[in-house]
TrEMBL record:
Pfam families: Sugar_tr (PF00083). Its main location: membrane. It comes from Bartonella choladocola. The keyword NAD does not apply. It comes from the Bacteria. This is MFS transporter, putative metabolite transport protein. One of its GO terms (molecular function) is transmembrane transporter activity. The chain crosses the membrane at residues 28-53, 65-86, 93-112, 118-140, 152-174, 180-201, 257-279, 291-313, 325-354, 403-431. It is a multi-pass membrane protein. It is found in: Membrane.
Amino acid sequence: MTTAHVEEALRPPVDGAAIKRSKFIKKLTFLISGGMFIDGFILGCIGIVMPAITHDLGLSLTWQGLIGASALIGILIGSPLGGYLADRIGRKPMFAVDLAIFLVGSFLQFFVTDAWQLFAVRLFMGIAIGADYSIGWPLLAEFAPARMRGKLLCIQEVGWYAGYLISYALGWLLTVSETANWNVILGLSTIPTFIVFIMRLGSPESPRWLMSKGRKQEALTIAEEFMEKEEQDDLHKQEFSGKHGFRELFIPQNIRVTIFVSIFWVCNVTPYFAIGTFVPVVLEQLGMKDGLTGGLVLNFVAFLGTIVAAFLIERVGRRKLAIPPFYISTVAFLVLALFASASVTLIVFCVLVFSLTNAISTTLTGVYPGEIFPTEICGVGVGFSAAMSRIGAAIGTFFMPMAVVYIGISWTMIIAAGICLIGGVVSQLLAPETTGKQLSETVGSPSTAPIIEAKTIEYS
């Protein structure tokens, strides 16, 4: 027997099933983060082309706010609607339908010529992408291995920020070079949407959703093919009430989960969207001469923040990434409000600090909902929380240009600081630690103790 034969005999047998499961999880992560990439893509370019749209269409401040917030308003509608349908009829059928709707809206951006048309099309797109939150995140959380669930869910936010950054960078390049008008820049989202839509066709149903509907044999068959052994065993441990719908979010067992996720999400995204959508204007008001380039750097730093969160989440835990960034952002905004006139260097430092830390905390908005809402209401839970966050983001985006004009940039920064402070306090009280736990252990985490006792929870 040769050395090669000996080595072959000693080599562990190849587990084909394990390889297949690993490939499936990687593909599912890519497909869901693809939806997030598209969401970031359509939101990232609107701020950079807003001056051109305003000039071409003669937009008033009101129309600027409405168009800037249109996709966010759509998400407000689409998230709860998509979540309800995902809980009612399943993750699988909705996984491709919502992206098909988005594809149509994305293509129509090439042809809009009036303010109301642009508002309507982006509202339509927002509805579809909002539904994708409520379908994709529960689907991935319900398949993912506990040991890496947080990391995989973090990748969704990495995808969002990557889409936002690439869209902003393309818009910046095409605007500066004057090689494309704003219709083309907005319509570029058609390309990644089409690719992800085709790849999503044929995805399997969530075994946990099937179990919640009493379809045990179907669930076990899919689980055996696509889920790791520990997660297959956990299917039998998780309890299912069989009840679904928005009312279930507010019963005693679930109300604290709903409160925590909603406020956590609102306080993360409201200042980001308000400033991000009009970042060139905000930076120039703060004293920077080149707001467009400054915005590009800001978005790149935010992208790095999501990568940091994905790298650290399974090492340091959820709470250490969720809470401190709120307090750091609060300080950064207060410094901007009180000392922005001191130097451009100070402005740049504070804006970059906010961008980095806010991105780290915001990354967990894609982690917590899928982990702590019960399977039967995970879709509507994500949808409701996303809707609440988009109400805050839409209000902030709508009023940002007016606030800068009527109350000044300093007071606008103080309001942003207050929002971050609220997020920090609520997270300090209610944010659970779910690292490494199976879904049967994490569901309903914030409601396992009264709010008054949550003060004793430590960073662990």
